Carbon monoxide dehydrogenase small subunit CoxS/CutS-like protein (Rhizobium gallicum bv. gallicum R602sp), 152 residues
Amino acid sequence: MSYDLLVNGVKHSVDVDGDIPLLWIIRDSIGLTGTKFGCGIAMCGACTVHVDGVPMRSCVLPVAEAVSKQITTIEAIGKTEAGARVQKAWLDIDVVQCGYCQSGQIMSAAALLATNPSPADEDIDAVMAGNICRCGTYPRIRAAIKLAAEAR
Ligand code: FES
Ligand code: FES
């Protein structure tokens, strides 16, 4: 069946089964490979994208449920006000190690700041707890989120 998706402001028509996870449409059909596959069971956060501004685990979101919604991936998060601040802070603090989890981390952080401009430590910990980093960049992630919040 054909589905119309709006990804980063661009319309894409894909002819796939409706229960295929959005992650694979983004990566394989559309070719945006910044969104990563980690666990496939909504446990690691590597596949996080925004759907109508809400962070979602695209590895478990059927493509049929994303039709007619605004999907934003890491490739376009820098065009949002909060996303631009988060990406700058990530570079200033030099958060990244291997980098694999970082697309998802940035997507979650940008969604946090878009809804909570001055998050407390516990707010950051609660939102970011679903994004796993096996390199252990958590202290720098928290510092970068605070720096991004102060940059308003
Ligand atoms: S790949 Fe989606 S949460 Fe891990
Ligand atoms: S930077 Fe390597 S897994 Fe997070």
